[in-house]
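Input structure tokens:
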């Protein structure tokens, strides 16, 4: 088990259940919810082949310069240090999930993927479910938004796995505006799964991807993050990505440092200033995601944005 980084504890393990009744009665899309980007990348398998999500030239380089190439890939593929449990204890409630089969492997096993393969999806889901079983008023968003090397059998396997692991905790797809914490607590729902693939469209507990848009700034410049639309449209939740995306020349310049040291840490003050300036509510932010959520008091800062709603007589606009 990984050692928990300094300053990270379970202080926010029950933050949803601790919100005042005024907020638990509001639509969940009006609350500020902390999330993580590429949530599963706290561990990647350097011994497995490069993932099918990578371009051909990356696969070629990894084949030609296996050890060196993968060491570089680890530094730029890992966007989180905390396990699912540690993220949940810290208050993270939205998980950005990308999955893949392993080409050439028999069976339908599914793995998390971001350049390199991560843990089995089943292990991650069991870890999340264990937390939810101990914290009955906490709700999570699981956003399965990228799929690689998966045919229909793989999707059927993954959807069945989600239903088997979470069972009655899964919330049925319905009108977003009617989803409040009070409603979810009454129904004993704790998991909202977004499945961005047609194979799930007739399954009541799988929500379509268009109900959780996540505009992508695709920039290395923190000031451009503010130009991305942050408000949710009618009938959907909304993800604001407080993340910077490295380009090929960014990776080349910071080859030995990696994403965290070269891009994220140096821009954290600007990114967090933007986060602190946000307001939840009808025309405000909903879910905000970040890389390396433990580097700052990210989750706590996002959660405290909800005080703006608690302190006002109407929903902040």
């Amino acid at each position: 088990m990984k050692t928990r980084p300094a300053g990270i504890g379970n202080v926010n393990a029950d933050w949803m259940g601790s919100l005042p009744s005024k907020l638990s009665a509001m639509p969940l899309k009006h609350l500020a919810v902390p999330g993580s980007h590429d949530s599963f990348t706290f561990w990647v398998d350097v011994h497995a082949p490069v993932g099918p999500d990578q371009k051909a030239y990356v696969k070629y380089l990894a084949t030609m310069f296996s050890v060196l190439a993968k060491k570089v890939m680890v530094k730029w593929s890992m966007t989180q240090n905390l396990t699912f449990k540690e993220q949940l204890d810290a208050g993270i409630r939205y998980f950005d999930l990308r999955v893949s089969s392993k080409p050439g492997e028999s069976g339908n096993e599914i793995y998390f993927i971001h350049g390199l393969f991560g843990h089995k999806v089943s292990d991650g889901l069991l870890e999340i479910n264990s937390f939810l079983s101990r914290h009955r008023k906490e709700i999570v968003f699981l956003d399965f938004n990228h799929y690689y090397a998966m045919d229909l059998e793989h999707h059927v396997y993954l959807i069945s796995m989600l239903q088997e692991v979470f069972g009655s905790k899964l919330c049925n797809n319905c009108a977003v505006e009617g989803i409040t914490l009070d409603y979810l607590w009454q129904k004993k729902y704790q998991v909202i799964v977004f499945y961005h693939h047609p194979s799930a469209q007739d399954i009541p507990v799988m929500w379509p991807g268009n109900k959780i848009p996540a505009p992508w700034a695709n920039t290395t410049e923190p000031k451009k993050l503010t130009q991305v639309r942050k408000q949710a449209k009618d009938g959907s939740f909304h993800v604001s990505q407080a993340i910077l995306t490295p380009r090929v020349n960014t990776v080349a310049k910071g080859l030995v440092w990696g994403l965290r040291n070269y891009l994220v840490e140096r821009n954290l003050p600007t990114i967090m200033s933007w986060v602190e300036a946000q307001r939840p509510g009808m025309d405000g932010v909903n879910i905000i995601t970040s890389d390396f959520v433990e580097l700052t008091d990210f989750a706590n800062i996002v959660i405290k944005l909800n005080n703006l709603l608690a302190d006002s007589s109407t929903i902040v606009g």
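The chain has eleven helices and nine strands. The first helix runs from residue 21 to 24.
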